[in-house]
Amino acid sequence: MDFGAAMRNTGYVVRAGALRDRLAGILTAAFADGLLSEQTLTHRLSALFDQRLVDPHGVVGDLSLRSRIQQRRPSMLTTAALAAYRRLPARKVDEPSGPLVLALDWMHGAGNLVIGRDAACDLVLADESVSRRHARLVFRDGTWIIQDLDSKNGTIVNRERVGRCQLQPGDRLQLGDQLLDVD
After folding, report:
1. pTM of structure
2. For the residues 75-88, what does the mean pLDDT come to?
3. How far is 136 from 121, CA to CA, in rounded Å?
């Protein structure tokens, strides 16, 4: 392991799946407020929980909870979902998408996953700054380890360049210019 990454000290621990649960809460509140049909809710929840790479703005970015909530007294669920929605980073139309959510299975894992631009990779990123075979994720003894595969732009975990590092929920990966939030 890289020494700097192994010695990192986080001020808080994020529960695995917390990012997806927060997004699901936003969708549920939007459904309760009549902003989504049952079919749309089902489709978006499926996209949220069935994929390894999730674009949060693709799932909830088009929802406008604020205007509907101001028309009547909001429920506690709606208020919590609105607060979670406001914490999502704002994105302008011409701006590239923000961090993707990297949804990992922390109970059973999937062995090895290769991340890169090549279509043969397990997790494909379209960003040109990502190498064809950029990094490998290995599940071992209940933890995920990321290993850089001699990529041109390197692998960065929580703003530190690493060769190999153990991941935790809440970590921010940077592969080239692409940001990934580990969930």
Report:
1. 0.71
2. 58
3. 10
